[in-house]
Design goal:
By secondary structure, the protein is an alpha/beta fold. It contains 6 helices and 8 strands.
Amino acid sequence: MIRKVLAKAGIFSFLKKCYNLNMKLERLFEVKESKLFTIEGEGVSAGGKAFCVKWSDVEGNPEEYNEDFLAKLRDDLKALEDKKEFVFIEPVFDKNGGAEQFTAAMKHCARRIKDCVSVIGFAIPAEILASKAFYIEELSAKHAQYCFFCKEDAGSDIVRY
């Protein structure tokens, strides 16, 4: 029944294309020379694609995550998916804490939205730019489809926006 409804809306084939056989999301975008492209090679503007998420909304106290917020975030991202819209998560560094604590919170966030096809990847805030390799490694471990973004020049493999 559900499959029939999704097929009629054209959503089933879209979602089927985005998942591989292991139920991992396929990479739909790639980065070349600090610019975003579809996997087919078409240039894509990163403008207007940032979806702000405050660190303080994800994590109150260290390792105390706001699961209600994360569930709503997932719902919002799934709604974008239904419209075939894509965004990247732009974390807002709005708490006192180090790069390791921030990265752990964003990794937890990524786990909660892992099935959202609408998420292209995550931005790297200036506050943790010195720890970008650790941040990318942690978020990419289970989300190889993610591209990364930064407002500053962070290398040719990071989209500058």
